[in-house]
Structures are given as structure tokens and as C-alpha cells.
UniProtKB/TrEMBL annotation:
TM region(s), chain numbering: none
Protein name (database record): DNA repair protein RadA
Record gene name: radA
Gene3D superfamilies recorded: 3.30.230.10, P-loop containing nucleotide triphosphate hydrolases
PANTHER family: DNA REPAIR PROTEIN RADA, DNA REPAIR PROTEIN RADA-LIKE PROTEIN
GO molecular function: ATP binding; ATP-dependent DNA damage sensor activity; damaged DNA binding; hydrolase activity; zinc ion binding
Keywords: ATP-binding, DNA damage, DNA repair, DNA-binding, Hydrolase, Metal-binding, Nucleotide-binding, Stress response, Zinc, Zinc-finger
HAMAP family, sorted: RadA_bact
Length: 425
């Protein structure tokens, strides 16, 4: 193969020589592996995959006022009280404002090294003159700036450059770094997308400020499972952990109501029982019926209504349909199809579903009930919370699941669902 002719550009930018040789390491090299550090908040540890990994970089995003700074201040205080060396840098608040929050949360006695700064050069110079911390919190990366980069704080070049320098420090010093990130109106982390590739863990702190609960979700995790969640409740003394999230999303009433179905959702490895509510309103005029959805995909509802009409002969075209996932929870699990269909059929026929029953399964365009992942895990959690009846795919419960649920009703199509709901009294 002929060598490409040399040009002025290739001669100036030739990178094939003059560098330093790198060292290679075998996968089974006898090198001590990093030990995770527990944060003192089991729900945070669960979302991280077991704790903070030394030298890792975590990017946490969330809406304004959702509780990101509160969660990280509680985490920093917990690690500091356990003997860890913690540095908390706030670029958005003065040190006095952070101390006020710490006093309100009862964390003022924690030995956290607190500072208010926005210059990455000043921060790295200070960190280089002291013992490297176990945890470094930067709140937030959009407020940081470098005097080596043109542009105001928050611009693409500034955010990328500052994040790169801070991550490089974390890797070289075995310091766990947590960066707080602003989000856009669409809920995505503001700034360059490459920042999410640079870090090891991307977390989203979700929830409605009008609701009590908060969900910490791992969107990317090089050291653990993706889509694992931790659940918190916002209280007067800060964020409290919720060990049984299902209690937040179930109504707790004894008597079943028409249009209500319970679905065992799966978030990572954690089953969470949520209540799906449907309301059908018949229209007398020729007005276009409305479809309103809260907590579920609008397109998925339209598809499910079309399948119920085409395959089961039910008439939703002349009725308004309202669907709500109780508690402000957002469902993305495709196994929710059967529970939504059960709630719709129950509301249309004005007949309540069987008491203490759960429903799960994916619905195809042919009206078939398709199997879903981790059916036995969903059933075990449902049985633990007192549910004794379940409906799902024909092969949805193995021997273990059927042992927990003697009343498991396998369904092969939506016609089985309609027969069970409409045929019940």
C-alpha cells in the first residue's frame, strides 16, 4: 500500500511519534480494586449501585427546588460524621446561606469543608494544597468558569472545560466527585451532551414539587445497574428515605372502585405498586372527545384504545377518556398495558375490579397479552403487600410465583380481560 503524500498539514500535525509510551494492564492483574464508600443513605446507595466509587464522577440533574442541594448536603454530612473528608463547593449560594440550610436540617455539627467559589483554578489550587477529600461536591457545574477558556459561565465551552478539569482531578486523587447540573425545560441536563459521556454516573432527581415523594433515578452507571431508583419523601427536616415506595402510590382504601387498577411496576430491581385510575365520560353532542393522560404516554393510550375497539368491540370513540397514575408517578414500563386496559374496561362498564388484585402484561396490536420481564419479582412484592389475586400473561408466573399467588389468572388476549371484568358482578 502506497504511503499518502506528505502535506503541510500532516507534517505539522503528525502524532505518530514524539509521545510517551503508555503502560498496559491485564484484566486479571493483582491490583486492589476500589472499595465503595457508603453514603449513609441506603436509598442513595441503592441508586448508585452500592455506594460511591473512589475516583468516580457523578452528574446529578433535576428541576429547580426539587431537593438536589438538600440531598447532597445530607449525604456530605453523613460521610463527614462517619470520619470522611468532605469538601462542598457552592457556586450558587453564599457560604452563609448553605450554613442556614444545614442548621435547619440539623447538620450544622458535621465537619464539612464549605466554600463559595466559581473559579476552577482557585478550587483546584486549594485542593492541591491539602489532603484529597473523600467526597467533592460542586453545586453547580454551570456556575463554574475557567480563565483559560473564553465565554461566560454556563456556556458549552466553559461547562465542558471545567467538568474535564474537575473529573481529571477526581481520577488522579481517588476522590468521589458529584457535579450538580441544571436542566432545560424538557428535563434534560443543560450544557453539552458530551458531559454525560465524560462522567461515570448520570442521575436524575425527579418528582413534582406539589407532591411529597422524590425519585432518584440512575440513567447511566458504569459501576451498577441502570434504571435503579431510590425513593425519598420531602419533609420539614429534609429528605426522608422511603423503604416501601408502594405505600406512597396506593390509595389504601378497602373497597374497590370502578376504573381503578393496581400495577406492579419495576424500577431497576425494585418493584413498586402504583394505582392507575381511569374515567370515561359519555358525550351527548357531536363534539370531539378529549383524551387526557397524566403519568403515562399519550400515544400508548391511543394505541390501547384502538386495540380495545378493534379487537374487543368496545366503543370509546364517543366518550372522553381520562387516565391518571396516582401520586404523580410516571410510568415507562410496557407491562403497564394490561393494568391500563383493565382500568379502562372497568370504568367503561362501571364495574370494579376484584379486590386486592394486580394486573400486568404488554398488549400487542393483535390484542395478545405478551410476557414481560421479572414476573415472579412483581408477584412476590404484590404478595408481600397483601394482594392475593393477579392477572397477567399465560407464562407470567413460574412455580415460585404461583406459590405466592394461588389465584393467578393467565390471559392470552384482551378478550379474556373483558370477559373477566364485564362478566364479574
Amino acid at each position: 500500500m502506497e504511503e499518502a503524500p506528505a502535506t503541510v498539514f500532516s507534517a505539522k500535525h503528525d502524532l505518530s511519534g514524539g509521545g510517551r509510551a503508555i503502560d498496559f494492564v491485564a484484566l486479571d492483574a493483582p491490583t486492589p480494586l476500589p472499595v465503595r464508600r457508603k453514603t449513609g443513605l441506603p436509598e442513595f446507595d441503592r441508586a448508585l449501585g452500592g455506594g460511591l466509587v473512589p475516583g468516580s464522577a457523578v452528574l446529578m440533574g433535576g428541576d429547580p427546588g426539587i431537593g438536589k442541594s438538600t440531598l447532597l448536603l445530607q449525604t456530605a454530612a453523613s460521610i463527614a460524621r462517619g470520619g470522611g473528608n468532605v469538601v462542598y463547593i457552592s457556586g450558587e449560594e453564599a457560604a452563609g446561606q448553605v450554613r442556614l440550610r444545614a442548621e435547619r436540617l440539623g447538620l450544622a455539627d458535621a465537619s464539612i469543608k464549605l466554600a463559595s467559589a466559581t473559579s476552577v483554578r482557585d478550587i483546584l489550587t486549594t485542593l492541591g494544597s491539602m489532603e484529597s477529600p473523600d467526597l467533592l461536591v460542586i453545586d453547580s457545574i454551570q456556575t463554574m468558569h475557567s480563565d483559560q477558556i473564553e465565554g461566560a459561565p454556563g456556556t458549552v465551552s466553559q461547562v465542558r472545560g471545567c467538568a474535564l478539569e474537575l473529573i481529571r482531578y477526581a481520577k488522579s486523587s481517588d476522590c468521589a466527585l458529584v457535579l450538580v447540573g441544571h436542566v432545560t425545560k424538557d428535563g434534560n441536563i443543560a450544557g453539552p451532551r458530551v458531559m454525560e459521556h465524560m462522567v461515570d454516573v448520570v442521575m436524575s432527581f425527579e418528582g413534582e414539587r406539589s407532591h411529597q415523594y422524590r425519585v432518584l433515578r440512575a440513567l447511566k452507571n458504569r459501576f451498577g445497574a441502570v434504571d435503579e431508583i431510590g425513593v425519598f419523601a420531602m419533609e420539614g427536616q429534609g429528605l426522608a428515605e422511603v423503604s416501601n415506595p408502594s405505600s406512597l402510590f396506593l390509595s389504601g382504601r378497602d373497597e374497590p372502585l370502578a376504573g381503578s387498577a393496581v400495577f406492579p411496576a419495576l424500577e431497576g430491581t425494585r418493584p413498586v405498586l402504583v394505582e392507575i385510575q381511569a374515567l370515561i365520560v359519555r358525550l351527548q353532542s357531536g363534539a370531539t372527545p378529549r383524551r387526557a393522560v397524566v403519568g403515562w404516554d399519550n400515544g400508548r393510550l391511543a394505541m390501547l384504545l384502538a386495540v380495545l375497539e378493534a379487537r374487543c368491540g368496545l366503543n370509546f370513540s364517543s366518550a372522553e377518556v381520562y387516565l391518571n397514575v396516582a401520586g404523580g408517578y410516571r410510568l415507562t414500563d410496557p407491562a403497564a398495558d394490561l393494568a391500563v386496559a383493565a382500568a379502562l374496561v372497568s370504568a367503561l362498564s362501571d364495574r370494579a375490579l376484584p379486590r386486592r388484585s394486580v394486573w400486568f402484561g404488554e398488549v400487542s396490536l393483535a390484542g395478545e397479552i405478551r410476557p414481560v420481564a421479572h414476573a415472579n419479582l412483581r408477584l412476590r412484592e404484590s404478595a408481600k403487600l397483601g394482594f392475593d389475586s393477579a392477572a397477567g400473561p399465560t407464562n407470567g408466573a413460574g412455580k415460585e410465583g404461583k406459590g405466592d399467588f394461588p389465584d393467578y389468572r393467565p390471559m392470552s388476549s384482551l378478550l379474556n380481560l373483558v370477559d373477566r371484568v364485564v362478566g364479574s358482578s
